[in-house]
Design the sequence.
């Protein structure tokens, strides 16, 4: 059976992940709940970090590790108060970004649960 990584590589690819990340951050910037949590001066940097992380996680691209080291996502999210509302909002903005980018079918059916699980795991309040 094909792995999640193989499905995403085949159906979405590096450019698809980049488009999805851009569409996500376009929404984050103006979001009343999440917008204020992100560095106002460095939205582009935040977009780069998430894009490179996703290209690392799904496609094995090395840039994230070179720039940031081991992801340690739980630790890196501790400074931000993430409760149920924040976690649910993150997921809904990402779902809207995936709709916009036409991420559907098998890819969508593996990426959506992945985001839901990580967003739940990152709750720290
Ligand atoms: C649960 C709700 C979430 C909230 C409120 C949240 C919020 C944030 C914030 C405020 C940052 C700092 C922005 C920056 O990089 O300067 C960040 C970074 C990051 N987030 Fe999230 N996040 C959430 C979920 C997720 C999920 C589900 C993933 C992955 C699937 C993720 C991956 C990342 C990555 C890779 C970074 C950059 C880490 C680094 O290298 O420093 N986040 N997040």
Sequence:
């Amino acid at each position: 059976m094909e792995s999640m990584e193989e499905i995403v590589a085949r159906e979405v690819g590096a450019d698809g992940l980049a488009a999805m990340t851009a569409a996500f951050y376009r929404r984050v910037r103006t979001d009343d709940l999440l917008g204020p949590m992100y560095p106002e001066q460095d939205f582009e940097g935040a977009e780069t970090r998430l894009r490179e992380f996703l290209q690392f996680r799904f496609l094995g691209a090395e840039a994230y590790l070179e720039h940031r080291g081991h992801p340690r996502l739980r630790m890196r999210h501790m400074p931000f108060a993430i409760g149920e509302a924040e976690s649910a909002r993150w997921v809904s903005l990402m779902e809207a970004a995936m709709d916009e980018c036409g991420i559907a079918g098998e890819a969508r059916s593996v990426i959506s649960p992945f985001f839901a699980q990580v967003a739940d795991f990152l709750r720290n309040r």
About this structure: Residues 34, 37-39, 42, 45-46, 49-50, 53, 68, 73, 76-77, 80, 82, 86-87, 90, 115, 118-119, 122 surround protoporphyrin IX containing FE (CB under 6 Å). Residues 29 and 40 are 8 Å apart (CA to CA). The domain at 4-121 is CATH 1.10.490.10 (Globin-like).
